[in-house]
Each structure stands twice: as C-alpha cells, then as structure tokens.
Amino acid sequence: MKTPSGDQSPTPPSKSDYDLDHDLDKDLNGDTLREECGVFGIFGHPEAAAITALGLHALQHRGQEAAGIVTYDNDRFHSERRLGLVGDTFSRAEVIARLPGNMAVGHTRYSTTGGTILRNVQPLFAELNAGGFAVAHNGNLTNGLTLRHELVRHGAIMQSTSDTEVILHLVAQSKRGRFIERYIEALRAIEGGYALVSLTNKKLIGARDPLGIRPLVLGELDGCPILASETCALDIIGARYLRDIEPGEVIVFDEHGKESHKPFPPQPPRPCIFEYIYFSRPDSIVGGRSVYEVRKAFGAQLARESHVDVDVVVPVPDSGVPAAVGYSQHSGVPFELGIIRNHYVGRTFIQPTQSVRELGVRMKHSANRAAIEGKRIILIDDSLVRGTTSKKIVRMMRDAGAKEVHFRLASPPILHPDYYGIDLPDRGGLLAATHSVEEMRDIIGADSLAFLSVDGMYRAMGEPGRDPANPKFSDHCFTGAYPTNLTDQNQVEPQPRQLSLLAEAS
C-alpha cells in the first residue's frame, strides 16, 4: 500500500483465510491424534481407477489433506493428484475418464513429513531406466532424513519434502538386475513403519515393514487382486478379504500370477496399537480382530479399573462411542448421547473472527441438555493429547447443567511422541508427559480423571498383560519402548523435520 506521500510502506503481516481456518481446525482437534494415510491398489480390472476412488473413499478417515491415483493402460501412466478430500476430485466422471487402464494405485494423505503442497501428494512417480514407477506410502521412515541427505550428497535431485521420495531414489540407484531385487534392496535400507503399494508397467507390488507396524490387507474382486490399508476399503467395493500381508512380506502381482518374498529375518510382529484405539474404522478387521469389539473391550476394562457412581455414560463423538458402549454394558450405567456432533463443519464455513474462534469446540460439538441436565455424567473418549478440547467439552457439560463431570480415556496416557506415521506433538506438547493425572484433572476441570492402564489395554486385547521382554504391539507412545532404531532422532547434529522447498502456488 502507499502512504499519502507516495512512499511504499510495508503491509503488516496478516494471517490468510487458510491460516485462520487451519488454526481453528487445530483448536477443534486439540485432543485428537492426527490421521496417517491410506493406500489402495488393484491389478487387472478394467475399471481400476473407479474402484480405487471408491476404496479411497472408504479410507478417507486416514487422511483428509490430499488424494491421488496413478493408473497404467499398457502404454503410458496417468496421474491425478489433488489437495482436498477424495470426493472433491475423484467423484467426477471426467476425472476417472482421464485415468484409463486396468492397474491403479491410490493414496489419501495426512502429512506426517513434508508440508501439504501438491508436489508431496502421493502416489509419487518417477521414470526409471526400467520404466515408470509409482509408490504410495502409509507410515514414516525413521531414517528418512539421514538417507535423504546421503542421496543429495551423491547427486540426487529431490522434488518433494516427503520421506517417500527416498524410496524412489533408492530403487533408481540400485544396481540389481530384476526390478523386484532393486525394490527389495531399497527396503533393506529403510527403517520405520511402512505399508507400500507400488505400480510399474507390469506389476502391482505391496510391502509391509518387518514388524508389521503399519497395516496392509489383500483382497480379491472379480478375480483381481487388491491391496488396501483396511478391510473397510474391500467392503465398500464388494471385494473378498483374503488375508493380511505378513510383516516383512513383499508381494508381487503380474500377468503370470503372484509371488511372495520374505527378504527379512523373521521377528515377533509389533503392529501399532493405535490402529485399534483410534485410526482404523470401527467396521474394519485388523490383525484378525474386530476394531469395534476391541474398542468396546477397552471401555469395559476402563469400567473395571476406574468406575465411579454416575447416572449416565456419555461418549465424546465419534471417537469415544464404541468404548462408551462397552463401558455402559459392563457397568450397567445407561448410555446417552449427551453430545451431538455436527458432521458438516467445513473450513469455509465462516470467517473465524477471534470471538467466534473462542467458541471453538461448539462448532463441532453441542450439548444435548435433555440427556445430561441435573445428572452425574462420565465422559468417555479414546485418547487425550493436548487437553484443549477436553477442557472445552467439560465446560460445555457443566454449562448444560451436568451435576458432576467425570472423564475417562480408553487408552493409557500418551507420554512419548511417535515416529512411525502418527502426527503427535513433541514430548513438551503432550499434556500427560508434563503433568500428573491430578494436574490434568484440574486443567480440564473434571471432577475425576482416569486412563486405561497399559496392562488393562493388553488384557482387553486378549493378552494376560504387557510382557516387557516381548510386547505384542507397538505401544511406544505409552511406554517409550520404540520398536526400531530412531536414526534421524539420534543424530549428533539435529536435522530439521521440515526441509526447504521452493514455495509455489498449489
């Protein structure tokens, strides 16, 4: 802008609409774990792109920032990658028409490394000397930054800030003969949690990390193999579930059929416990267990461990509903929908002025006064991260006339950050890592506060308890027992989590 004298005066920095909306979204989701990603692939089906789009719809809960599909039509690859929800792009017939071919891989993204810009949206694609190669990745590499810096020092040119791009370069630089050998050599170099679905001009490839931290399942539709993060993606298209991809397995589909490779030494699996607590859809089957039934069992165990005399059990929707059902059934206390969730809050809903922003959680949750007024209530949620939303929900319940408000979490206190694909704050941002239970209770304003114990969580999973010498799950956020090396975190000189990249409109 110009001053009256005509001199240029710098415009004071101000937040964009996106920044304000993003801040509001973070505020509304202050106590939630942020999603990972969802992957999907199909081989040999004439409607590969449309089926992949449907599969990604079912996996939308795993990431809402961006989505992409890559197909191959026996001549060339086709790619559509867009910011936003799956339905924003892939529900349109003209988009699907631009994705011909009978092979496809798809990805729905929540960024754990790399910002939300179009060049980070997956599947990532590269032209190698063996032909085109697309890869979709759920998880996070704990040595991704270290490998990236080594690759750049040796001349690699990176086009994104996603750790997934490291896999493309490792495959490209391998001197092995067959493509699958090059692919496996790349996997041997990476650490962390991953489920990969990859596409070449001849093959669909699925791979799961040696500990099985991230999930990947195999299904079949009309005789065509399908790979997906969860069984709910098979259900939506009427596909038949066949089995889980085994930890450390690399499975390849081509015109000759399938072949399975086991390139890693066998070790006890450590699937991520958060798939059961939060990430997977309740109607999915993960590791042979119904997610819905496990969450109900968490709630029942919570009732065994920390019940108090109340009138109603109230879930924090939607994440706390199955656990609240289990709590109610075990305790005999009636289940009531004391909080109603508005599913239609969008980022462009309103220009969030400061006064509106302070209303915060009421845009997504509102009290059902008829169910809670004058009653002693127990709130059930799946987890607590920062405590901001929990505090507002407790206040909302009191404002609606609740006589007592008790809070229960159907998971143990989160004490440590995650490095395998869950976007958790560093330790200083985790409420339970910096406060006692009594201090947390005081902060959120509840009459009492309790978490599910670690052993209780294992018992709800059908185990006798947690065996420290051989834990059955990746539970590091509760225990600090990380199942793999944390190479990037252990560098003598800390490396930036967000790498530089040319700013551009997306």
UniProtKB/TrEMBL annotation:
Any single biological process term in GO: purine nucleobase biosynthetic process
Stretches with biased composition (Polar residues): 484-493
The protein's Enzyme Commission number: 2.4.2.14
UniProt GO molecular function: amidophosphoribosyltransferase activity; magnesium ion binding
Residue segments, region Disordered: 1-22, 484-506
UniProt enzyme class: transferase
Domain Glutamine amidotransferase type-2: 37-256
Residues given in the record as Mg(2+) binding sites: S319, D381, D382
CDD domains, per the entry: GPATase_N, PRTases_typeI
Keyword NADP set for record: no
Keyword DNA-binding on entry: no
Cofactor note: Binds 1 Mg(2+) ion per subunit.
Pathway annotation: Purine metabolism; IMP biosynthesis via de novo pathway; N(1)-(5-phospho-D-ribosyl)glycinamide from 5-phospho-alpha-D-ribose 1-diphosphate: step 1/2
Cofactor section: Mg(2+)
Catalytic machinery residues: C37
Keyword field: Glutamine amidotransferase, Glycosyltransferase, Magnesium, Metal-binding, Purine biosynthesis, Transferase
Reaction(s) this enzyme catalyzes, per UniProt: 5-phospho-beta-D-ribosylamine + L-glutamate + diphosphate = 5-phospho-alpha-D-ribose 1-diphosphate + L-glutamine + H2O
Source superkingdom: Bacteria
Function text: Catalyzes the formation of phosphoribosylamine from phosphoribosylpyrophosphate (PRPP) and glutamine.
Similarity field: In the C-terminal section; belongs to the purine/pyrimidine phosphoribosyltransferase family.
UniProt name for this protein: Amidophosphoribosyltransferase
Source species: Afipia massiliensis
Lineage summary: Bacteria, Pseudomonadati, Pseudomonadota, Alphaproteobacteria, Hyphomicrobiales
Gene for this chain: purF
